[in-house]
């Protein structure tokens, strides 16, 4: 028995742990709610599926789920809920595992035969066209992939860049539907990928070597359009798998990250993410206004195994919600 210093009454000290545990009960409940939400998303990642809304949207921000998982672990420890603590540690371990880059990074075996620079940019309904033109003149890429290039954007690119980039393939359209590939190398026609937004294709003659080009811009995984998003990513995968014997570059706004199963299936055709090869696999490209502190990398340059990537840079362009991506590549011949 002890004396309560506030009231002067005798109390049983054995009641205190029970009272303390009861006081922390809300903390355990909050921890359980946080763990349950994170577990649904992590469970889909473990099962290699994108699930249904809101899982695809949350998967894009998988690394940021460390925050609610960590908060849940702290609440569990404070509440002395040991089962929850184990749950939290398991979730943090799985998240740390899946944050690691996905795909292969083997160097090409053959001799280098050509150097080229690739730039991809989503100009948000053409609003960032002026900034893109300035960036192209400054960076001097050999290949330019432009998404959401509506009619005025397309006209501006023709007017300002035709002398330096005489070869082009485009799908004309308003709003987000227009897309353009610009090239210093000769291009011949190749089938694009039919989709809601333009995804033109071409074959470039890169110093005597054929290179398949494919612009990527599938629909985003909006809550009522997840099925369409998955279908268009699958169409890109099928296009990539049609001819694995020719070097290939797929670039654009994929509206997906390595944490999406549909995007990983695209990498499983043998493509590698150039940003990952250059050591920048988690650098944010969208939304530009919160980059690089917060966001996700959904703009990619994917290359076949004949390419090595030396450097990846992310450009902040005004008037668009995406950062542009510039990568330096080396094409290697047969080993």
Strand percent estimate: 15-25%
Structural class: alpha+beta
- What is the average per-residue confidence, as pLDDT, rounded to a whole number? 93
Q: Which residue ranges are poorly predicted, with pLDDT under 50 across at least 5 consecutive positions? A: 17-23
In whole angstroms, the N-to-C terminal distance is 84 Å
CA-based gyration radius: 25 Å
Share of helix, binned: 25-40%
How many extended strands?
14
Q: How can the largest sheet be summarized? A: 6 strands, mixed
Global morphology:
elongated
Count, helices: 10
Give a written overview of the molecule.
The chain is an alpha+beta fold and 335 residues long. It contains ten helices and 14 strands. The protein has helices spanning 15-23, 25-46, 55-59, 66-78, 82-99, 129-139, 151-161, 226-242, 261-267, 274-277, and strands spanning 2-3, 10-11, 112-122, 143-147, 167-171, 179-183, 187-190, 201-206, 209-216, 248-253, 272-273, 299-303, 307-315, 324-332. The strands form three sheets. It has a six-stranded mixed β-sheet with strand order 5-6-4-3-14-13. Strands 7-8-9-10-12-11 form a six-stranded mixed β-sheet. Strand 9, helix 8 (226-242) and strand 10 (248-253) form a beta-alpha-beta unit. Helix 4 runs antiparallel to helix 5 and helix 8 (226-242) packs parallel to helix 9 (261-267). The longest helix has 22 residues, at 25-46. The radius of gyration is 25 Å and the shape is elongated.
